[in-house]
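Input (structure):
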């Protein structure tokens, strides 16, 4: 189905290119359909063919495809780091909120409110604060700011999904543990955590995609070179009459999100024993 979906997108892409005029469609002074010339919407085969072209007009320079692969790997590492940091923070926060109702009432509104802060405004602040921090005598590096911003987006779905999952066990299951004189910790390990998996896995998928978005936006906002976010800016500045390189970079960024999200699918397979459960919370 994924292959069919991609094929349909490409077909629609080319149909728009053929059917919509190059200057788009306007009603009066209002443009209702965008331009479809090569500067706005290149052909699919132009985007693919540009991958083999040299990145710069210098002998021995790497190809556009090699540049996207290198920058994609850089962003991939930062996205994974942000995903792990955000996931750990979200999990711990959910466990604490489930354990202490007072903490939940105090913290949960701010967890939700945190996602209303635009990354473009947040990125310079994190970079500025990071410049005043030294870890083990080592100065704060720009890539650390990117990882923090990526984790900032990733922790929210994990915290909310995990909190809902920890509350998923049926009342009978929890009361049974109480009858066995089991404390909070055994109940968490044997009932609440297994029951939370069906809620946690979708949250991790969202967190994985969010970490990629956070890493790319942070690279653009902070001006950090080496990642695919900065490469998008470079290719957009080169898009004079032909935006094939820009579309290739954007598609590479989308593919990066698919790869990171697919890794969560591997985790779901490892947790297959619990992934199909919903609210029983039973072993």
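Output (sequence):
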């Amino acid at each position: 189905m994924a292959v069919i979906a991609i094929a349909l997108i490409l077909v629609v892409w080319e149909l728009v290119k053929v059917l919509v005029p190059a200057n788009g469609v306007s009603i009066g002074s209002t443009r209702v359909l965008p331009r479809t010339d090569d500067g706005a919407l290149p052909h699919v085969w132009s985007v693919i063919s540009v991958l083999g072209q040299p990145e710069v007009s210098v002998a021995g320079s790497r190809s556009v495809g090699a540049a996207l692969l290198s920058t994609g790997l850089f962003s991939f590492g930062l996205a994974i780091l942000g995903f792990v940091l955000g996931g750990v923070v979200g999990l711990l926060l959910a466990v604490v909120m489930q354990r202490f109702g007072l903490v939940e009432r105090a913290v949960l509104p701010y967890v939700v409110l945190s996602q209303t802060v635009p990354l473009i405004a947040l990125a310079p602040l994190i970079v500025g604060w990071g410049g005043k921090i030294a870890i083990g005598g080592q100065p704060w590096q720009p890539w650390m700011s990117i990882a923090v911003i990526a984790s900032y987006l990733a922790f929210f779905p994990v915290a909310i999904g995990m909190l809902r999952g920890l509350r998923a066990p049926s009342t009978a299951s929890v009361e049974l543990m109480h009858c066995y004189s089991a404390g909070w910790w055994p109940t968490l390990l044997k009932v609440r955590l297994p029951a939370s998996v069906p809620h946690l896995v979708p949250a991790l998928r969202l967190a994985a995609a969010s970490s990629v978005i956070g890493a790319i936006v942070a690279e653009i906002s902070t001006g950090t070179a080496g990642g695919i976010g900065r490469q998008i800016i470079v290719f957009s500045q080169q898009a004079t009459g032909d935006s094939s390189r820009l579309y290739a970079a954007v598609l590479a960024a989308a593919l990066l999100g698919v790869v990171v999200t697919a890794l969560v699918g591997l985790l779901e397979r490892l947790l297959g024993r619990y992934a199909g459960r919903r609210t029983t919370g039973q072993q």
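Notes: The radius of gyration is 23 Å. Residues 88-283 form a domain with the MetI-like fold fold (CATH 1.10.3720.10).
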